[in-house]
């Protein structure tokens, strides 16, 4: 070999082109969340009376979060945070929107779907929307290429708890037929309890179809927001009567099995190894529905409260090669953090307007490290009811919905709720996750530090009767 040829071959072998590796593809994202599923309603979180083998396996292949929160324990407010990374108090989307509400998510708020769509993602929404049912507020106008589902909660219909249509002076006569939308068109209605029992299956079929159509066309984002187990609950015939828990357990087992089918679709299409899968709930269980509701034990209270049982929910994440399998984190994390985390993983730009979420990417890669989030502000409606920093949670004086010491309902009928009242109280959530022992007198220095956190929260996002400097407005149809 001539010296000239040897030099040439050496140069080729050591050139940047030779050393370069193909750029990693951005991950697909499948975000699944249920409605009113409690903290204790998955096997890996302690469920009893029913099994969730597919979701338990997902946890074994990824990361389980033990201290994961929704922004508020009510439908529309919670969904607003999932999609925007903002406390609902920042963007004016409080409570649960009604079929006669004239408000929705403002156009200037950038959703996760919009941010991913801007970098080439195919985007789809399936399930319960609940951020405005007028056409300008529907998913197609918030970054989704396609959508299918219900515009609001499945109990917002003119049907009584026993499945009989209402008439006369019944409070539900104000509701109209419950529509199913596709894109911006109504394509059907949910009129009976039998129709309700088909929703999980319908949503799953739509989600799997989207995965199969999108897997070979570049990255995709799928948001699957199940209507179940929000009452009125229903399971398809294949799952009814399967569990000791009763119909609620049947519903959860169907959601689990359908999640298994969706995971299998990712495998079959060859994209499972490059897909971030997230499973969580929009808030805690609606406890006064008794045997048609789940549990949040050992946490206190449920949906509609900012006690831990209302806003701390299960959350599982899997992304092979990035998130270590079989890991658990007790670090503080929230639905606010999903958007910035996903945006960073997918190479998208962050929103232009200020948000409240923090990227968890470094923590997901090394769950033994500290979470970047150390604080959480517990708003309900426009009231700051508590704040958390590290292990400590400080409640401020407020009244709240309570389920304790009241007889719950049965067979789809609600039991009563009461009104509880609390003065300022401090809880150590590591030692006392059930919030039973007020330790404010033992830790006055912690109370003072948390009062400072609360002052910052009020200055930014307000409190009852007080506006905050960082608040924006929802959109409204006059």
Structure summarized in a few sentences:
The protein is built from 13 helices and 20 strands.
Please provide a written account of the structure.
A 10-stranded mixed beta sheet has the order 8-7-6-5-9-1-10-11-2-12. A 4-stranded antiparallel beta sheet has the order 14-15-16-19, with helices on one face. The protein has a two-stranded parallel sheet with strand order 3-13. It is an alpha/beta fold. The chain has helices at 3-13, 16-19, 53-60, 75-84, 88-91, 112-117, 193-196, 199-214, 247-268, 308-311, 338-346, 361-365, 444-461, and strands at residues 28-34, 63-65, 68-69, 103-104, 122-128, 146-150, 178-182, 185-190, 220-225, 275-281, 315-318, 327-329, 333-334, 375-380, 383-389, 392-395, 398-402, 418-422, 425-428, 475-476.
Give me the secondary-structure category: alpha/beta
What is the CATH homology-level superfamily of the largest domain?
Alkaline Phosphatase, subunit A
Instruction: Report the CATH architecture of the largest domain.
Output: 3-Layer(aba) Sandwich
- Total strand count, please? 20
Helix content: 25-40%
- Distance N to C terminus: 84 Å
Major sheet summary line: 10 strands, mixed
Would you tell me which CATH topology of the largest domain applies? Alkaline Phosphatase, subunit A
Output the radius of gyration: 23 Å
Write down the overall geometry: globular
> Which runs of at least 5 residues are low in confidence (pLDDT < 50)?
1-22
Our count of domains comes out at: 2
Strand order of the largest sheet: 8-7-6-5-9-1-10-11-2-12
CATH class of the largest domain: Alpha Beta
Name the beta content range. 15-25%
Average pLDDT taken over every residue: 94
């Amino acid at each position: 070999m001539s010296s000239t040829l040897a030099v040439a071959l050496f140069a080729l072998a050591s050139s940047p082109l030779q050393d370069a590796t193909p750029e990693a593809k951005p991950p697909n994202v499948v975000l699944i969340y249920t409605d009113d599923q409690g903290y204790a309603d998955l096997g890996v979180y302690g469920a009893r009376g029913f099994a969730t083998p597919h979701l338990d396996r997902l946890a074994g292949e990824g990361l389980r979060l033990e201290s994961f929160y929704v922004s508020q324990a009510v439908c529309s407010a919670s969904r607003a945070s999932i999609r925007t990374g903002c406390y609902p108090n920042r963007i004016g989307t409080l409570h649960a929107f009604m079929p006669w509400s004239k408000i929705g998510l403002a156009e200037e708020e950038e959703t996760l779907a919009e941010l991913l769509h801007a970098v080439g993602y195919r985007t789809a929404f399936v399930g319960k929307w609940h951020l405005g049912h007028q056409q300008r507020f529907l998913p197609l106008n918030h970054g989704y290429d396609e959508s299918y589902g219900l515009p609001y909660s499945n109990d917002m219909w003119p049907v009584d708890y026993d499945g009989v249509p209402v008439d006369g002076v019944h409070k539900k006569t104000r509701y109209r037929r419950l529509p199913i939308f596709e894109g911006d068109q109504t394509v059907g209605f949910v009129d009976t309890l039998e129709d309700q029992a088909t929703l999980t299956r319908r949503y799953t079929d739509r989600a799997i179809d989207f995965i199969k159509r999108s897997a070979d066309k570049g990255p995709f984002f799928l948001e699957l927001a199940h209507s179940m187990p929000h009452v009125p609950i229903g399971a398809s015939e294949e799952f009814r009567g399967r569990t000791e828990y009763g119909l609620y357990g049947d519903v959860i087992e169907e959601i689990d099995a359908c999640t298994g089918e969706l995971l299998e679709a990712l495998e079959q299409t060859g994209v499972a190894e490059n897909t971030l899968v997230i499973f969580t709930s929009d808030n805690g269980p609606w406890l006064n529905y008794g045997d048609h509701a789940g549990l949040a034990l050992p946490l206190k209270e449920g949906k509609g409260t900012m006690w831990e049982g209302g806003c701390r929910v299960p959350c599982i994440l899997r992304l092979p090669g990035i998130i270590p399998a079989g890991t658990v984190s007790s670090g503080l994390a929230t639905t606010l953090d999903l958007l910035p985390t996903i945006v960073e993983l997918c190479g998208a730009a962050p929103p232009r307007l200020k948000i409240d979420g923090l990227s968890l990417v470094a923590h997901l890669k090394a769950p033994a490290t500290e979470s970047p989030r150390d604080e959480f502000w517990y708003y309900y409606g426009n009231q700051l009811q508590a704040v958390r920093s590290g292990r400590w949670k400080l409640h401020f004086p407020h009244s709240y919905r309570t389920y304790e010491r009241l007889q719950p309902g049965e067979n789809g009928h609600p039991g009563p709720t009461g009104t509880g009242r609390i003065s300022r109280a401090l809880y150590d959530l590591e030692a006392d996750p059930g919030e039973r022992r007020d330790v404010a007198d033992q830790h006055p220095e912690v109370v003072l530090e948390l009062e400072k956190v609360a002052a910052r929260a009020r200055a930014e996002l307000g409190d009852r009767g007080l506006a905050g400097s960082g608040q924006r407005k929802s959109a409204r149809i006059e």
